């Protein structure tokens, strides 16, 4: 039997990262390729205690169908925390619980974009978002991400002019994936003003916002949203558990209402038991103290990776110096072929993700690769970076 | 701010059932409107014990990102059970874990249908599926479901001829939602042969297949699938927990591969903790004994509802006599206005779902309503049916 697939799905390939993740069954490989949080970031004992209590006292509610919008007390707890922590949420906004942050991205595109529409985004950008746009027949168009300060607002103006079918701008302004860099406040304001003038919806993806380990907090774009043009999405994946798939959206009610209808036909609602678990953890435990521990851990691991890069990597290879999040972005000199570099690193048993995976223009090269420091051990960070540096020296 | 939504989502309304479900906060209303399993169908003690064990021994795996295809041991356990129980799965098939059965339906349509394509289905049909098709810009076209025997194969031939853009046929052949009726074996074979001749994919939705309480097992259409044209989806919602959102698809590998790519951008993967919970329950506990208990319960409740209908309902109102599942479908004589009937029932504090909600042709009437017997208590079944009968007598 020959199958004919929909146009939007026919060309879509599995995410290179997920494929790399699947192939990392060889325990002798040092992987800097994942985007996984450290296991230390899961408050296992607390979640276990709450879970036992839910089974003992509210099991038939927790195991029954829930409403699509999400578990009411969790929606309230999320709204309160986002307001307090990030200045997010005005009278026209409401909160939706999603099956991970990924679902918020996909739903936003689904309700706003027709096939053939354009989604403007940073180049490089998060592959899960790029593929979500593609899976809906929308076309991601990248705006170069500068080494510092995010995208150039003038380049955004130009991209809007050049793409009349642009329906939204997708940004990860804080501890960007894959670049690790952060857009400064002034640039955020300029981006917001430009989008407001053009009635362009901003999808602000902030999965790493809680993970700052250096520098000063920068206001979210959503906190500037007087006009109701920002859809904000985030999740508990990096602070409580990635595998439970609980995320959320804060956005103008009219948009959320459409997202609820779209979510209803995707999965009816998000796992209710874990929604209750999240609610209980947020309201009964010290989430800030828990997050402080994760920040300290990642800050230490990031410094170790940067120190090792500084010591061993040839100076012609540059990299970002993140103030939070999970990733460092390394740029290779033009003389080095990236895919060749990646292959030779794999032969040395170190896995990294090629920049091309994050290029909104599919299959186009990017002279860079992504490093993750949250998953490997300290020993693996030092040994792995040494091996990367060895390959780099050989290829220069 | 005025928002412009995608064409496919602009017209889509929230499911009438989910809206009714949300409005059922009045505890004095007897609800026959839900599609919820009885709380007795959740094996709380066993799930609680397994959960404690997962937290104690494999928490950092269970709370971490997993692979999109699903937890390997669960995929194997599902494949083995479907093979043994329903004769499902050939060498070309594979298994995908989905976030509830709903996601399997949506993903299948997403990978097969372009906007403007047609999905043939029974009329009436499951509203969650109809809205999933609509949310992707596909058009559901109904084929009348006969009181017995499912759709007429000749009508299917005619529908295929009349709809050159038909990409798939969506069926709930066993204990249909909302009709409660089952397609007989001979009709299944004729439907399969017609679809094979026209290379039309069949999406066989079987969420209630385990819930037979009368009559003899009938082979699934998937068990006849020598040609790889059937995508089979089901879930654990009606036998372990609806709120956990764990379902599965068994389908030809080429189709599943595309569904995996589509799922990756929707939610990355299904809640891993509950996938592990399902696997442990299936392999370590007596699932068949547990299901036997649910069957006995629903058989008793269905008989009680039918007996009460037989006793009190005017003879001009007809209804199906299900051999399993959750629903009875009542047809009103043409003289009775259905929406008026529903309103008057609500005034008498009984909620049922109007037939129109299940009509593939949106907003078109259907001279019927759906009753659920899994959720109400015995007392509520008797009292609620008496009230329905009273309204019916008044309106005749």
Average predicted local confidence, pLDDT of chain A: 95
Task: Specify Rg of chain A, calculated over alpha carbons.
Answer: 21 Å
For the secondary structure, the number of strands of chain A is 13
The named CATH superfamily of the largest domain in chain A: Type I PLP-dependent aspartate aminotransferase-like (Major domain)
Sheet/helix structural class of chain A: alpha/beta
What is the CATH first-level class name of the largest domain in chain A? Alpha Beta
> Could you list the spans of chain A in which at least 5 consecutive residues all have pLDDT below 50?
none
The name of the CATH architecture of the largest domain in chain A is: 3-Layer(aba) Sandwich
- Assembly type: homodimer
For the largest interface in this structure, which chains are involved and how many residues does each contribute? A-B, 84 and 84 residues
Lateral strand order in the biggest sheet of chain A = 2-8-7-6-5-3-4
CATH topology of the largest domain in chain A: Aspartate Aminotransferase, domain 2
Tell the overall outline of chain A: globular
Quick summary:
Chain A folds into 2 domains: 137 residues, Aspartate Aminotransferase, domain 1 (Alpha-Beta Complex); 240 residues, Aspartate Aminotransferase, domain 2, CATH 3.40.640.
């Amino acid at each position: 039997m020959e199958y004919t697939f929909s146009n939007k799905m026919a060309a879509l390939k599995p995410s290179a990262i997920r494929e790399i993740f699947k192939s990392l069954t060889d325990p002798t490989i040092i992987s800097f390729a994942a985007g996984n949080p450290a296991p230390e970031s899961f408050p296992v004992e607390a979640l276990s205690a709450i879970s036992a209590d839910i089974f003992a006292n509210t099991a038939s509610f927790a195991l029954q169908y829930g409403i699509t919008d999400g578990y009411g007390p969790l929606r309230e707890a999320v709204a309160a925390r986002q307001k307090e922590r990030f200045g997010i949420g005005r009278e026209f906004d409401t909160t939706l619980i999603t099956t991970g942050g990924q679902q918020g991205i996909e739903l936003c595109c689904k309700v706003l974009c027709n096939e053939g529409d354009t989604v403007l985004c940073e180049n490089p950008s998060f592959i899960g978002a790029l593929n979500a746009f593609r899976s809906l027949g929308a076309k991601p168009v990248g705006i170069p991400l500068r080494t510092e300060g995010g995208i150039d607002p003038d380049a955004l103006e130009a991209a809007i002019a050049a793409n009349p079918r642009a329906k939204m701008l997708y940004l990860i302004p804080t501890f960007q994936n894959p670049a690790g860099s952060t857009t400064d406040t002034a640039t955020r304001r300029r981006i917001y003003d430009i989008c407001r003038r053009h009635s362009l919806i901003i999808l602000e993806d902030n999965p790493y916002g809680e993970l700052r380990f250096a520098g000063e907090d920068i206001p979210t774009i959503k906190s500037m949203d007087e006009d109701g043009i920002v859809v904000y999405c985030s999740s508990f994946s990096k602070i409580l558990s990635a595998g439970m798939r609980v995320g959320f959206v804060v956005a103008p009610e009219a948009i959320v209402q459409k997202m609820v209808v779209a979510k209803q036909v995707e999965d009816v609602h998000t796992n209710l038991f874990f929604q209750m678990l999240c609610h209980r953890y947020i309201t009964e435990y010290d989430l800030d103290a828990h997050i402080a521990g994760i920040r300290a851990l990642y800050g230490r691991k990031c410094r170790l990776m940067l120190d090792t890069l500084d010591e061993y990597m040839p100076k012609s290879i540059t990299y970002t110096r993140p103030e939070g999040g999970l990733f460092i972005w390394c740029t290779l000199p033009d003389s080095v072929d990236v895919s060749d570099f990646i292959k030779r690193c794999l032969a040395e048993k170190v896995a990294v993700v090629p920049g091309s995976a994050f290029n909104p223009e599919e299959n186009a090269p990017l002279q860079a690769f992504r490093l993750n420091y949250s998953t490997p051990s300290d020993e693996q960070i030092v040994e792995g970076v040494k091996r990367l540096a060895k390959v780099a020296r050989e290829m220069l």
